[in-house]
Amino acid sequence: MDALSVHKALGDDTRFAIYRELTLATSPISAQEIADRLGLHPNTVRPHLERMRDAQLVMVETIHRGTPGRPQHRYSLAAGAPGLGGVESPAHTLLAGMLAAMAERAGADSIDAAAIGRGVGREAVAQEGVQRTAPGACVATLLRQLDRLGFDPSEEQHQDRSHIAFLRCPFRELAEAYPELVCNLHRGITEGVVEAAGGGMVERFQTLYDRDHCSVVVRAEYPRRSPDLPEEPDR
How many Å apart are CA 226 and CA 200, to the nearest integer? Predict the structure, then answer.
């Protein structure tokens, strides 16, 4: 099972809580039972179960009671679905938060975070073996890297510019607590990828607290043409 698809499916706090209940259950349980345990409405729980079912994390059993009315659906983990140890745990979140707090206390600022991020972005492109190619080709590399990190990027093109929205932020909790460090770390990663892939530049990066939040605009860069040199006269 693809680790990235697992993290995407369980990146939402509510889905993670539902998944935890399914992991702890000793037999298939209904959406109503899950809702009761979490203090939610069943109509809130069902779409999350379907999302996890689409990701092949959950299986559903349909029970026909032999009486009028809808059959009952009972849910359980699909074969091969990871246990709680295979997904991001509260301990990892706590560790990331402590490291961010240490960095801030040590005096790290937005410039430091962006510099670290650019190095990470450049290294990711080097590992992917991307060759610097045509103007704007860096966008495809950036989309792959953002998707790998779990940002669910969505691109819209406008002439020589690509507007990429981040439909999900895997760093959101940390970004809300340490926006200067975390958002600039993300900005640096984006800039490093575009710089290493070539053919474009980051024109605008919008953070969690900007009006057009959580997005980046990449502009294609075309090589400058040298003026034609006059032909030398025949001798």
Answer: 19
CA dist 188 and 114 (Å) reads 4
Does pLDDT of 12 surpass 90? Answer: no
Residue spans per domain, the chain: 3-83, 107-220
- Determine the distance from the C-alpha atom of residue 102 to the mean position of all C-alpha atoms in its chain, rounded to a whole number: 24
- Separation between Cα atoms, residue 154 and residue 166, nearest integer Å: 7
For the four alpha carbons of 125, 8, 13 and 19, in that order, the dihedral sign comes to: negative
| 3-class SS of residue 34 | helix
Lowest mean pLDDT among 111-120, 184-193, 215-224: 215-224
* Between residues 218 and 70, the one the model is more confident about: 218
101-129 burial by CB neighbour count: b if 16+ within 10 A, else e? eebeeeebeeebbbbbbbebbbebbeeee
Q: Can you state the percent helix, strand and coil of the chain, rounding each to 5?
A: 50, 15, 35
**107-220 CATH:** 3.30.1240
Q: Kindly report the pTM of this predicted structure.
A: 0.60
| Structure tokens given for 196 | 């290493």
Residues 6+ apart with CB under 8 A from 64: 71
Does domain 3-83 fall into CATH 3.40.1190.20?
no
In this model, does residue 160 exceed pLDDT 70?
yes
User: What would the mean pLDDT of 170-179 be, rounded to a whole number?
Assistant: 87
CB-CB contact of 108 with 181 (8 Å): yes
